[in-house]
Design brief:
With 259 residues, this protein is α/β, with parallel strands linked by helices. It has twelve helices and ten strands. The protein has helices spanning 30-44, 67-73, 86-91, 108-114, 131-134, 142-150, 152-161, 167-172, 182-197, 201-215, 219-234, 239-258; strands at residues 6-11, 14-19, 51-56, 60-62, 97-101, 104-106, 118-122, 126-128, 164-166, 178-180. A six-stranded mixed beta sheet has the order 1-2-3-5-7-10, sandwiched between helices. Strands 4-6-8-9 form a four-stranded mixed beta sheet. Strand 2 (14-19), helix 1 and strand 3 form a beta-alpha-beta unit. Helix 6 (142-150) crosses helix 7 and helix 10 (201-215) packs antiparallel against helix 11. The chain is globular, with a radius of gyration of 19 Å. The relative contact order is 0.11.
């Protein structure tokens, strides 16, 4: 499944997807965007996949849209066609995506990071939203997602200054879950992916959907949605399956306490 600019490695149900234009800080030109969308479309149709880890080669996660190319061709991110629309392409992937942010995540690269479900960062990671300095409006959701993650005031500070924040600040602000030494980032991300993949596959997919769908609504609407989907799912749950799951969860809890 490897493309020219996107590498894919499989480890059972876990897939490592690597942006591979290190000489250009993994800048998101049209070719890379098309390859990334095609990759996640293919993974979404693979019944053996459960979790994806997304990272970048070299010293950047991605420096964002390739401005050199954009200066020659022009672009409107929100109007990208289906083969290069990252927001739609990654949103259609039904399983968790862990972003392993190894370096710079700038503007469009910051937006790509925000398309992931969980963010882990290297100590080398740096985030910046330079849309206002470049003269481009965000089109992949940053203006809405960032404020919901870190609060509207901090989001405005980042977006209105274009300043960088480091990994520790990103963790303090709730943008990333954890910060690791550079060599420990990918092993930690893959280990977390394997933990997620070990969950009940139906619940893993359904849980991601209900969180995302509910988050896009009011609290009251999201709560009603949870009740509806919980009731629908419960119709297929048996006492025997609950007892087997209880035993497995209890054993796992004991193992974690002993380790």
């Amino acid at each position: 499944m490897n493309h020219e600019h996107v590498l894919v490695e499989r480890d059972g149900p876990v897939v490592l997807v690597t942006l591979n234009r290190p000489e250009a800080m993994n800048a998101l030109n049209r070719a890379l965007r098309a390859e990334l969308v095609a990759t996640f479309q293919s993974l979404a149709s693979d019944e053996t996949v459960r979790v994806a880890v997304l990272t970048g080669a070299g010293r950047a996660f991605t420096a964002g849209v390739d401005l050199k190319e954009a200066g020659q061709t022009g672009f409107a991110l929100g109007a990208d066609g289906g083969d290069i629309d990252l927001a739609k392409g990654l949103a259609a992937f039904p399983w968790p995506i862990i972003g392993a942010i190894n370096g710079f995540a700038i503007t469009g690269g910051f937006e790509l990071a925000l398309m992931c479900d969980v963010l882990l960062a290297s100590e080398n990671a740096k985030f910046a939203d330079t849309h206002a300095r470049v003269g481009i409006m965000p089109g992949w959701g940053l203006s809405q997602k960032l404020s919901r993650l870190i609060g509207i005031s901090r989001a405005k500070e980042l977006s209105f200054t274009g300043n960088f924040i480091d990994a520790d600040t990103a963790a303090d602000w709730g943008l990333v879950n954890r910060v690791y030494r550079p060599d420990d980032l990918l092993p930690a991300a893959l280990a977390m992916a394997k933990e997620m993949a070990s969950c009940n596959s139906l619940l893993l997919k359904s849980y991601k959907a209900i969180i995302d769908d509910g988050f896009a609504q009011t609290f009251a609407e999201g709560s009603r949605l949870e009740v509806e989907r919980s009731a629908a799912h419960a119709r297929d749950v048996t006492a025997e399956s609950v007892e087997e799951a209880r035993k497995a969860v209890t054993a796992r809890g004991r193992d974690q306490q002993d380790s």
